[in-house]
Every structure is written in C-alpha cells, then in structure tokens.
Design a protein that fits this description.
Elements: E1 2-6, H1 10-22, E2 27-32, E3 43-47, H2 48-57, H3 59-66, E4 70-72, E5 75-79, E6 82-86, E7 91-95, H4 96-109, E8 113-116, H5 123-126, E9 132-135, H6 142-146, H7 148-151, E10 153-167, E11 175-182, E12 185-193, E13 199-205, H8 207-213, H9 220-230, E14 240-241, E15 254-261, E16 265-266, E17 269-271, H10 286-303, H11 307-337, H12 347-355, H13 363-369, H14 371-385, E18 398-400, E19 403-405, E20 409-411, H15 426-437, E21 442-444, E22 448-449, H16 466-482, E23 486-492, E24 519-520, E25 534-535, H17 538-557, E26 562-567, H18 572-577, H19 592-595, H20 597-609, E27 616-621, H21 633-645, E28 650-654, H22 672-682, E29 686-688, H23 695-703, E30 709-712, H24 714-718, H25 722-729, H26 742-760
Parallel strand pairs: 1-2, 1-9, 2-8, 5-11, 9-17, 20-21, 20-30, 21-23, 22-23, 23-26, 24-25, 26-27, 27-28, 28-29, 29-30
Antiparallel strand pairs: 3-7, 4-7, 5-6, 10-13, 10-14, 10-15, 11-12, 12-13, 16-17, 18-19
Length: about 750
Amino acid sequence: MKVLCLGGGPAGLYFAISMKLRDPAHEVTLLERNKADDTFGWGVVLSDDALGNMERNDPISTAAIRANFSYWDDIAVIHRGVRTVSGGHGFAGIGRMKMLLLLQERARELGVDLRFQSTFESAEAYRHEYDLVVACDGINSLVRAEYADVFRPDIDTRLCKFIWLGTHQKFDDAFTFIFEETEHGWMWVHAYQFDSNTATVIVECTQQTWDAWGFEQMSKEDTVATCERVFAKHLGGHALMSNAHHLRGSAVWMNFPRVICERWYHENVVLMGDAAATGHFSIGSGSRLAFDSAIALAEYLHTEPTMEAAFRRYQDERRVEVLRLQSAARNSLEWFEQCERYLDLHPVQFNYSLLTRSQRISHENLRLRDPQWLRSAEDWFQAQAGGTPGRAPMFAPFRLREMQLVNRVVVSPMAQYRAVHGCPTDWHFVHYAERAKGGAGLVYTEMTCVSPEGRITPGCTGLYEPQHEAAWRRLTDFVHAETAAKICCQIGHSGRKGSTQLGWEQIDAPLAEGNWPVMSASAIAWSGRNAVPKAMDRNDMDVVIAQFEAATQMAQRAGFDMIELHAAHGYLISSFISPISNRRTDEYGGSLANRMRYPLEVFGAMRAAWPAGKPMSVRISANDWLGDHGVTPGEAVLIAAMFSSAGADIIDVSAGQTSDEAQPVYGRMFQTPFSDRIRNEAGIATMAVGNIYEHDHVNSILMAGRADLVCLARPHLADPYWTLRAGLALGDGEVAWPLPYLPGRDQAVRLAERAQEAVRA
C-alpha cells in the first residue's frame, strides 16, 4: 500500500510506524512543514494505561520513550498559600520534542520516508497518487477544512485563555496546580516536569482577567515577563520561557477548540489526531487519543476485508472512546472555566473538587490512590458537620433550622399512583415506612396535591380532605416512633399537566374518560394531545394560594418535619417560572422578576403558615434544556436566590420536564452541575438529584461541595434499605439498623468478611 501522512506530530509518526510494523512492504511517506527538531509546546503527559497499549503495539519505541520519562505519583494544589498533596495518581511526562525525535528515529529504522520543511498541497491533489492519505495536520487541519462539507466538524471554542510555557524550576515531586489572585483577577498554572532540567508551565485565566491585564496589547516578551512576576514565588528565581518562535504578541495565547467530526473519512482520505478530535490538556488525553487512533486504524486496515470497512470500524469505535474522553475533558475544562466559584472553598474541599472535576476519579478511587489523604479529608468534612471521625461524608449530620438529619441521604419524591380520591392507602404506609426504616436521613412523599383538580392523575395523593391528614398522620407517627428518619411533604399543583393517566400507562396523556379542567400560567397545552388550560386570572390565583396555605396547615397537623414547594417539571408553579409556558403580558409575565412574582406569592403564604422552626425547600427545574429559549442554569441561580431570600432553607435542584420539546443531555449525575453552580455561586444550600445511584456518587458530590444533601429515587425503589447496605459496603459500624433487623446486619457483615478472606486467599 502506498501511504501518505500529512503531518509529523505524534499521530502521523505513530501511524507510519504502526503500518510498517504490520507490513514492511508498505511505502509510507510523511510530510511535515516544520523542521525535524522544531515543535511548539513543551511536555507531554501519558498515563500507564496509554503506555500499555503502545507497548503491545511497538515495544521498541515504547522502551525508548519510557527511558526518557519523568515520573511522578503526587498531585499538589497550591491555593491561598496552602499546599495540599495527594498521591497514587501515576503519571509520566516527556518533552514533546524528545518524543518526536524518538519516534522519527524509529520511523526511519522501519523505512518511513520522512520529509520535513514540506508544504502540503491539497489532499485532493494527493489522494489520486496514493492508496491512502492520512490527515494528521493538527487542530487547525487544512484537510478537515478542505472537506468540511463531508467531515462536518463541530468546533466549540472554549472560554479560557492559556499560554504554553516552560521553566527550569523543578516541579519533579508532583504535578502541580497553582492558583494566584492578582490585581486583575485569578490566574492559575498547570506545571509538571518532563526532563531533568525542564518543566511545562501552562498559564490560564478567564477572558475577563486577560482583558483586564491588557494582554492583547502586550508583546510576547512582556506577556512572559508578566506571567513570571505573577508566579515568581513559585519559580525559585527561574525564568519562564516561550518556544513559540513563529508567534508574535497576543497570538501566543490560545482558546482551546473542542473538535469532533461527524465523519472521519472521505474516499481514501482519513482524519487522525487533533484533526479528527481534540482532548483538553487538563486531563492530558491529546497524545493518548493520537496514539490509540493510530494503532486502531493500522490494525483495522490489516484485519478488515476492505478499506471502507476499516475506515467505518475505525470511525465507529474510536468515536465512542473519543466521546468518553471528551466528556471527561469537558467536565474538567468547565471546572477550570468556572474555578473562581470554588476559590472560597476550604483548601481541603477545593483540592477534592479539583481532583474529581472530570468524574473519572471518584471517592472510592481516591481511597485506592491515597487512603490516608482521603481519610483526613473525610474527617475534615465530619468535623465541619459536627459528625464522627472515620465516617464517609454521606453519614455526616445536617441541620436545617430545628430539624437535625442523621445523614445526607434523601429518598427523592416518587409518584406511586396508588391513592384513592387523593387519600394515601396502606400501599403508601408500607412504601414510605420501609424507606424510613432503610436508613435514609430524610424521606420525601410524592407530590401531594392541594386540590382534586390539582392532581396529576386520579392516583395522586392530596392534602385537601380531613381523611388525607389522618392517613398522613398515621405514617409520620410511625416514622418518628420507629426510625431516625425525618419526613418531608412535597406539595404541588399539576397545572396543565393534570388530568392524565397513571405513570405506567401513557404518561402525560389525557384520561380516556373523566377528565377535569386544567389551568396554567397561559393557555398553552402541554402537548397536542393535552387539553388547552385556562390562563389563570386573579381569582384563580387567590384560590390556589389559599389551597397551598390550607395544605401547608394540614401538613403541620399531620406531623411532617419539613415541606417542599414543587416549582419544577412543568407543573403549575413551574409554568409561571418558565418562559416556555408563561406568555402573559401582565405583571406576572415577561421578565424573570415578573415570572417569579406568583411563585413567590405562593411560597410566602406557605412559609407564613408553616412553623418558624421547621424548614422549607423548593424544587426547581434549573434547565429547561431549550437553550436561551427557556430557563438556563445561569437564570436558575437567580431563581434559587429569590426563593432563598423569601425564606427557603434549601433548593432541591432538578431539571427539565417543562416542555415536550426539551433536549436533555443525560449521564451519571447529569443534574449535579446545576446544584453545584447554585450552591457555589449563590452560597445557597442545595440538594442534588438525577441518575445518582452509588454511594460513591453520593460521597463525591458531598465531599466536593456540589450539594449539601443527595437525593436518590430509583435506587430506593429497587432497594428500600439502600442506605443500610451502603453502610455495610463502606464498613461503617455506626449506621443504625432497626433493632429487629440486627441479626440480618450481623450476617451480612460476616458474609462480607468471608468474601474478603476468599479474595485474599
């Protein structure tokens, strides 16, 4: 096969090597516009996992690279003068130039024709001369641009400015993050050693800080000198250096472009490396992606029956891995883009937040890496909460007004659809009693409706008849007498989403018969099949306020410890907040302040009717998942602040379900970032919810300060004793089990010990 590689970076060189290893008869030519010993950038970071894949592909070049590695195991974070170190992270660094020279040498040994200082022609000109043209021409790929209508690249230019520098200061004991507050805003450094004399120093800041410093008008030399002054106390008298000889002035600064292409090949032209997809430097995945892609394509070209089949497999399989890494990279880069919201955290919590920013490192993964440091962090968390040393964050107490929770686990509201005329039944008693016995600190009821027409379905519970109050009282009495849990009543009104079928039937679809009239902020149906609601007038609004007030009074008499206003998911209160459902032209529509007017009136009436010593929460949809057309995460911070100012003690942060046109982005803990933003930007206590299902998730969220309480829904449907089992898994002997269940606990402990002994044997 006659092969042409356009670009002599890691992707191009390693693909050329991989092809020659599989068939020395291949004629492989590589064109690179720069000199052989000329490169932009300083060090490259590779993980042990990446090296393992390379070693299986080519032990010789991998051995040469390993021989020139600088290794470190620790990550150091310097924040507000405190240096926090954790171990067990296992990284290796090598100079980019040294790595390229080693790969060049290996390529020559294998017979690759390396042509440097060669300007590319168009790929179209080459593809008729060669059997295969591999475009490895980097982030600003000319080939990708040439066939943009085929490759359909999606390029997201990120917010922070960064500059890639070097220094002879030693950072050989740890990968080091340094955060410095300047007169113009925060700047930070990613620093790591890559040979015996030199370290990479990536300086980063927000656009606002960059503008305030006037970097746009500075020369390259003045920029480097300014960065040197900012971080002088960390440089030990050493200078910062730039090797971007081809760049002038502010061009030495970059905004990272996240690149992904819909298609990776065209005829016999294929993209590789940064030309196809980029990985942010904060998780060190760029070179890893390049090497793994080179190995994969070379292998498929020799195992698949046709080039088309090889390309298709390469595209399909590598895209999955790229998207996984890009997801982690997105989490990481967004943390740095917003890191100023975390800089007031205690150094312990700030360090933890940084370490877990990508979600690739979890709480228990940190325990494997550095159990001593994690235990010290957990003990700090417990000390802040007034808890017991040696316990995980999820088992720290939490206080809201006069209500004290024994732990941070919450059974999230989940509709049961088993009520009869709004009255909870024995089903509800058994369901909620079991979950209260299961160890969670706080148990929520399902949305409990303030009127018959305020129900979502005929099976929804209510608080509008004396028998409702009595049935709930039976439950709260049991919870308080037999468990350590507290119980919260979520109170709401269905609005335009009412008069629908049970959850396991056609969800959100109107009843086959017996529908009741619905109302909302505006006369906009939930969907084409749902009834058009009445736009509420002043009388309607007053009636509903009175209903919420009466339900609140019933909740107090029924013995609930806490109540929540359901202002999310497209129901009545939510319909006022979201511009998707609120098209009013009076004082209750238009601006956010106007859209919040009625929800705050309802909340105020509830707060006034609820005892001062008992807490209240509000559930909000922090993202309509409709871009700027609906509620955005930024707007959610303002919504939360308004409810907090009105007396809400904690915000239950959910998202979506406000429009049937929403386009949510699902994943593990996918709604937690909204809770994180509200808590750390507005300083408001929050609850996180949404695809949280492991104790690892719970502890990670709490320890990082992304929420104060963590809600789990479906896990509690599958296992009422989820919290008790989590305690067993974590080896926590202080989790209180119901006294009749102690033999079951003891057996579970013994079985776990035997399993561990079997593993050790």
